[in-house]
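Sanity check

After download, print the first record. It should look like this:
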Amino acid sequence: MIPVTDLRTGVTFADNSQIYQVLSYEHIKMGRGSANIKVKVKNLRSGSVTEKSFISGAKVEPINLEKRKVQYLYSDNQGGHFMDSQTFEQFRLGKEKLGGQAKFLKEGMEVSLLAFGGEHLWLDLPIKMDFKIAQTDPGFRGDSVSNIYKDAVLENGVKIKVPLFIKIGEMVRVDTRTGEYVERVR
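Expected structure tokens:
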């Protein structure tokens, strides 16, 4: 068991038979009372993000996740199909496990898979990925100074907001956690 004061970003732990990964940590001490620990966590089984609060002396069970490299093969109406890069074993992750990450998967790309006791829990995608702009309205001369965004469709069909100077065919970097434009790739 580890004390909740040791929970930091990226630490995984078990609580009430669920597996969580810490996204943010906050230690709150007010007046004479005991301190409270607030953590924003992701449930690795369901993909939901919640906040949990613990008193200072509480303990949780640490979990060591297995991280394996897998290759994304294709998707169908049941989920995504992957292949283990070392054993060449093929398996499927259901739509509920992929969540919003499915839209950023490219055929043939390698990603990390987090597993615990043989159970496939979550894909660990790169934080930033590059995509080509498939469709967008043309920008106008002189509009590149302001911070105004327009709609664009990426090569994978995802709709995002991009600055006015971005044109069809250009490569842009997208944050896979939020689905937002980061920068133009040259």
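If your output differs, re-run the checksum step. Summary of this record's structure: The helical segments are 95-98.
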